[in-house]
């Protein structure tokens, strides 16, 4: 299983080589992997910002605990979840489903009403938490895709979301930063690559009931 070999290879890269860049072809493949991620109801209630601009990343670095990956990496991916869910999010998905699967929109109304009903059961805080969790599914696909392409990646929660929201103008779009990932190529000076991977033994991690 090639996936296992790829996951054995990857690690959370601490130092990137700023001179090595992810190609447009590879970036397109990574975007496709994110696009194909599973999400609750298929709604994909998030966006992924791909930040290449170094000046923008310089502004984000202080809000990221001054971690060097922010500016050293080839690209910074910021996963943002929607904070204010509206019926239009459901209707847009149903319109896309109708077009893609050649289904009459009228046949999907019941599904739309069901989704709206379940969503309305959640408080605002629960909705923000729920949409944020969807971004982690997409992050998992990104990490697996990068590992297959032999592109290094570092998922990161060490940042101040409110400052990201301000710098990137996310609040005006009804979004908030949830989790980020720096991608690129490891520096030869990154000693972390030589560390053995630390994981719980399977007999401790799994329990069959």
Q: Can you describe what's shown?
A:
With 209 residues, this protein is an alpha+beta fold. It has one domain (2-205): NADH Oxidase (3-Layer(aba) Sandwich). The chain is built from nine helices and four strands. It has helices spanning 2-9, 24-35, 54-60, 69-72, 87-101, 109-120, 124-149, 161-168, 202-205, and strands at residues 46-51, 75-82, 152-156, 175-184. The protein has a four-stranded antiparallel sheet, with helices on both faces. α2 crosses α7 and α5 packs antiparallel against α6. The chain starts with a helix and ends with a helix.
Key phrases:
four-stranded antiparallel β-sheet; 9 helices; 46% helix; 14% strand; flavoprotein; NAD(P)H-dependent oxidoreductase; NfsB-like
Concise summary:
With about 210 residues, this protein is α+β, with helices and mostly antiparallel strands. The protein is built from 9 helices and 4 strands. It has one domain (about 1-205): NADH Oxidase, CATH 3.40.109.10.
Summarize the helices and strands and which ones pair or pack:
Elements: H1 2-9, H2 24-35, E1 46-51, H3 54-60, H4 69-72, E2 75-82, H5 87-101, H6 109-120, H7 124-149, E3 152-156, H8 161-168, E4 175-184, H9 202-205
Antiparallel strand pairs: 1-2, 2-4, 3-4
Helix pairs in contact: 2-7, 5-6
- End-to-end separation: 26 Å
Q: State the order of secondary-structure elements, H for helix, E for strand.
A: HHEHHEHHHEHEH
Q: What share of residues are in beta strands? A: 5-15%
Please name the CATH topology.
NADH Oxidase
The residue-averaged pLDDT reads 97
Trace the largest sheet across and list its strands: 1-2-4-3
CATH class assignment: Alpha Beta
* Separate helix tally: 9
Number of strands: 4
Sheet bearing the most strands, described? 4 strands, antiparallel
């Amino acid at each position: 299983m090639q996936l296992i070999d790829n996951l054995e290879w990857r690690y959370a890269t601490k130092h990137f080589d700023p001179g090595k860049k992810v190609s447009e072809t590879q970036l397109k493949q990574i975007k496709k992997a994110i696009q194909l991620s599973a999400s609750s109801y298929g709604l994909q209630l998030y966006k992924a910002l791909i930040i290449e601009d170094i000046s923008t990343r310089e502004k984000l670095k202080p809000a990221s605990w001054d971690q060097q990956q922010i500016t050293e990496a080839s690209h910074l991916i910021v996963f943002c979840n929607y904070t204010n869910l509206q019926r239009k999010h459901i209707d847009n998905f149903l319109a896309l489903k109708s077009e893609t699967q050649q289904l009459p929109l009228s046949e999907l109304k019941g599904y739309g009403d069901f989704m709206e009903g379940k969503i309305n059961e959640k408080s605002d805080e629960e909705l923000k938490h729920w949409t944020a969790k969807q971004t982690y599914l997409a992050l998992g696909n990104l990490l697996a895709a990068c590992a297959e392409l032999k592109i290094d990646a570092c998922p990161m929660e060490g940042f101040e979301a409110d400052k990201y929201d301000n710098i990137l103008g996310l609040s005006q779009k009804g979004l908030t930063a949830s989790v980020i990932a720096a991608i690129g190529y490891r520096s030869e000076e990154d000693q972390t690559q030589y560390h053995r991977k630390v994981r719980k033994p399977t007999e401790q991690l799994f329990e069959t009931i």
